[in-house]
Specification:
Layout (H helix, E strand, L loop, with lengths): L9 H9 L5 E7 L6 E7 L4 E8 L10 H19 L18 E2 L4 E7 L4 E2 L8 H15 L17 H8 L12 H10 L1 H21 L4 E3 L8 E4 L2 E4 L6 E3 L2 H7 L3 H11 L5 H24 L6 H16 L6
Helix pairs in contact: 3-8, 4-9, 6-9, 7-9, 9-10
Length: 327
């Protein structure tokens, strides 16, 4: 995010960082990524860390509240820490004084801290070359072969926020009066309503086919797009593990490519050919989940900021993409 949350600043971060054994000399906001908030932290001896503050209100895709989102985040970070013991490309969270990788700052925000890794970050929307995609597929093949840690989160096929999105498309969600984008967002959603209803029906049909296929679930990252890749010495490092979960492998693969020729490399490495229905399902699921998240954002309280302006651009682009069938 380009702007830090008003509720979280250095006065709140410094004592929380000490719970990770870090006496910070410099704490500087890093305007990178989207969704979470990030800071670079430097100690008196020059050691550096990367601190991430999760907004639990924006991770509550299933309607169970911030407490459930915090529990899910803790399980995800625990999983990432265990994977980091086995896989060199995982950038794992550090343990706090209680041994856990997450410290709650208040009822809405939670802190995780990571080692600072020197490298060249990618960005969301970056187009990777076929060779770069093959390198990412190699990492995913290794990840998918890992035995799952015991408390790993499990995600189903349903799109988070689907019920809310369907209600919004049908005009059943009440008045849109949360902020400056509310009226325009309601109008935009209404214009795209026929396509959204078609995509929701398409999603349900694909989900049923994938369920009937009974594919085995594996450890997945969830969002292995270029924005979560760091080109470091020795190869790519994979960051931002808050979405790690047990799921069918196409949850990851669809983010990287749906090209059958490239996916043949993954099939050779794992002995499992990706399912075209599952690839189509997760390509569509990504878009529907984004549409639901942006809909909730613009229906709720919000102000005009550089972050909401960027969210508005992505909301319009997402709805345009949903005009096209998944297959």
């Amino acid at each position: 995010m380009e702007q830090p949350p008003a509720e979280v600043g250095e006065p709140a971060l410094r004592p929380a960082l000490r719970r990770f054994g870090i006496d910070a000399d410099v704490v500087r906001y890093a305007a990178v990524g989207f969704g979470d908030h990030h800071w670079t932290v430097t100690g008196a001896g020059g050691q550096r860390w990367f601190a991430t503050v999760a907004d639990l209100a924006h991770k509550d895709h299933d309607g169970r509240g911030a407490a459930a989102a915090l529990d899910g985040l803790r399980r995800a970070m625990d999983t990432a820490a265990r994977l980091g013991e086995r896989l060199s490309f995982v950038v794992p969270p550090l343990p706090a004084e209680d041994g856990g990788p997450v410290v709650a700052l208040n009822d809405r925000y939670a802190l995780s801290v990571f080692p600072f890794v020197q490298g060249e970050p990618g960005w969301f929307g970056q187009q990777l070359s076929p060779v770069e995609r093959e390198r990412v597929l190699d990492l995913l093949a290794e990840l998918h072969r890992q035995p799952p840690p015991g408390d790993i989160p499990v995600v189903g096929l349903d799109s988070p926020g689907r019920a809310m999105l369907a209600d919004a498309v049908a005009g059943r969600c009440g008045e849109w009066a949360g902020g400056p984008f509310a009226g325009a967002a309601a109008d935009l959603l209404a214009r795209h309503a026929p396509a959204l209803r078609a995509r929701l029906r398409e999603f349900d049909l694909l989900a049923e086919r994938v369920r009937q296929g009974g594919a085995a679930r594996v450890v997945t990252h969830g969002e292995p797009h270029p924005g979560n890749l760091l080109a470091a010495a020795g190869g790519y490092r994979l960051i931002d593990w808050d979405t790690v979960a047990l799921a069918v492998p196409e949850r990851d693969l669809a983010v990287v490519t749906t090209d059958a020729a490239l996916l043949e490399r993954y099939a050779r490495a794992t002995g499992r050919a990706p399912d075209p229905d599952a690839l189509a399902l997760y390509s569509l699921r990504w878009l529907l989940t984004d549409a639901a998240e942006f809909t909730a954002w613009f229906r709720g309280p919000h102000a005009r900021t550089s972050d909401t302006e960027r969210a508005w651009r992505w909301f319009t682009e997402t709805l345009e993409r949903l005009e096209r069938p998944a297959r």
